[in-house]
Write a structure and sequence with these properties.
By secondary structure, the protein is α+β, with helices and mostly antiparallel strands. It has helices spanning about 40-45, 50-60, 80-90, 115-125, 135-140, 150-160, 170-190, 215-225, 230-240, 255-280; strands at about 1-5, 20-25, 65-70, 90-95, 105, 110-115, 130-135, 165, 200, 205-210, 250, 250-255. It has three domains: about 1-70, no CATH class; about 80-165, Arc Repressor Mutant, subunit A (Orthogonal Bundle), CATH 1.10.10; about 170-280, no CATH class. The chain is built from ten helices and twelve strands. Helix 8 (about 215-225) packs across helix 9 and helix 9 packs across helix 10 (about 255-280).
């Protein structure tokens, strides 16, 4: 059994006799040394034998005050072969628009540029938002000179950046679908009068997905049989306008119906071309 808890400045054992031990950081990007610590710092940390103390020192090195960690009880290690097999069977899904992903990432050392030779082929392959096992990605990109270690690191980086998510087994997705649909239906209808909930449930990932109020209204429009950005924008404006609500753009309130309709239509275009394919893959829409 694994549990995730946050600690303060240092990585220390829990203050209660739970008999758990530190496993690793729950922040994906913490696992990429190249963007967080220098080669000299990495060599220094490797010389510290105690894993708890090593993590505490690392916190000071990167000036980190708070942590998100995994702790496990009864940890059992895997052989290199078992580990590789488990990694290859992990299923992932691209949840961001391919054209909107910049090959840049930020860590404790600042902003870093990702290798186009590694990331571009993977992102091009996953741009259709289909679920793939890591072994499938590995097989599809070998001609590009990309090995399993590079694929795994890229998946970790893109997951940490919020572009890729892990996917549940099909039977778990099917089991969660009905309840997720019921919850999402309630939340989308709630979005007609309020924007206080900007997440919907995905049975595919088993978690919440960021979906803004206007996007939720566009989804309601599609469910009502509306098609095309103008119809989606008009549907959303009918709801907002009837409540005397106006869109604020660049700090300025759009006062006329024409201005609000034009802005909603633009956002509807962006939604249909960008977010809609992903939310369909996530079985939210």
């Amino acid at each position: 059994m694994s549990i995730s808890i946050g600690t303060g400045t240092r990585c220390t054992s829990p203050p209660w006799p739970s008999k758990v031990q530190y496993a690793c950081s729950a922040n994906y990007l913490d696992h990429i040394d190249a963007i967080n610590i220098t080669n000299e710092q990495a060599a220094f940390l490797k010389e510290i034998p105690d894993p708890m103390f090593r993590q505490s020192v690392r916190d000071f090195v990167v000036n980190q005050q708070f942590r998100k960690d995994y702790w496990v009880k009864g940890a059992r290690g895997l052989s290199p072969l078992e580990q590789a097999e488990r990694i290859r069977s992990e299923r992932v899904l691209l949840t961001s628009r391919r054209s909107g992903i910049e090959l840049k990432i930020s860590g404790a050392l600042g902003e870093a540029t990702l290798s186009e030779n590694v990331y571009a082929p993977m992102l091009d392959l996953m741009a259709d938002h289909k679920i793939r096992e890591i072994r499938e990605i590995e097989k599809e990109v070998p001609g590009k000179g990309i090995n399993l270690a590079q694929v795994v690191q890229a998946v970790i980086v893109l997951s940490g950046a919020g572009h890729i998510m892990s996917v549940q087994a099909d039977e778990l997705t099917h089991k969660a679908k009905k309840r997720a649909d019921t919850l999402n239906s309630y939340l989308k209808n709630r979005a007609r009068g309020s924007g206080d909930v900007s997440f919907l449930a995905s049975p595919v990932t088993g978690g919440g997905i960021a979906v803004g109020r206007f996007q939720q209204l566009f989804m309601l429009a599609l469910e009502a049989g509306k098609r095309g950005a103008p119809e989606l924008g008009a549907y959303a404006w009918e709801i907002l306008g009837s409540q005397g609500q106006r869109i604020i753009k660049d700090g300025k309130t759009l006062e006329t119906a024409e201005e609000n309709l034009a802005e909603l239509s633009l956002q509807a275009i962006d939604f249909m071309e960008g977010a809609l394919p992903a939310v369909k893959a996530l079985q939210i829409a």
